[in-house]
Amino acid sequence: MTTPVCTSGANVATRTFPYPSHPSYPSFASYMKARQPVLLRTARSLTPNPIDAEDLLQTALTKTYVAWERIEDHRALDGYVRRALLNTRTSQWRKRKVDEFVCDELPEPEGVPAGDPAEQQALRDAMWRAIMKLPTRQRAMVVLRYYEDLSEAQTAEVLGVSIGTVKSAVSRALGKLREDPELEPVR
């Protein structure tokens, strides 16, 4: 017995498909709207976190959207997306970083004695008073460099000056702070 072979696209519409419950979708949006709840359940079965499942499905649907024109048989779309879900999840699993591991001793630091909170606050206040004594430009550079943790290049960009200006001004400011009598206890 010979099986008829379809040679033109016109015959596709007249064939009966073995999966009548999976119609051909005219657009990606219509497919996604119709099948998203089912596919989300599949994604949730692959990962324990519902948010991760949504991200996983979104990635798989993005891959499907990119390949939409190349997928000839739209009856196979669910299988395509399920395979994309599985492949994406497998890739994530392989790339994952192990942040925790078993060890005999806890890697926590020895108990460093905390200073007196009142002394720490007094030191902070003295430091701010000393910083407020600096000229406006030096104060801005010290604050950006050490309180906002910007690099020299970022500080220069924010203030619209050269990196060399930042380096020299911060150096002079730190020299003045070292000489401030209020910060004597720190030295």
**Mean pLDDT over the full residue set:** 80
Number of helices: 7
SSE order in H/E notation? HHHHHHH
Largest sheet: none
- Report strand %: under 5%
Q: What structural class do the secondary elements suggest?
A: mainly alpha
Write a compact overview of the structure shown.
Helix content is 58%, strand content 0%. The chain is mainly α and 187 residues long. Residues 3-21 have low confidence and may be disordered.
Describe the overall structure.
This protein has helices at 28-46, 50-67, 77-95, 117-132, 136-147, 152-159, 163-179. With 187 residues, the protein is mainly alpha-helical. The chain is elongated. The relative contact order is 0.07.
Keywords:
187 residues; mainly alpha
Blueprint (SSEs and pairs):
Blueprint lengths: L27 H19 L3 H18 L9 H19 L21 H16 L3 H12 L4 H8 L3 H17 L8
Helix pairs in contact: 1-2, 1-3, 2-3, 5-6, 5-7, 6-7
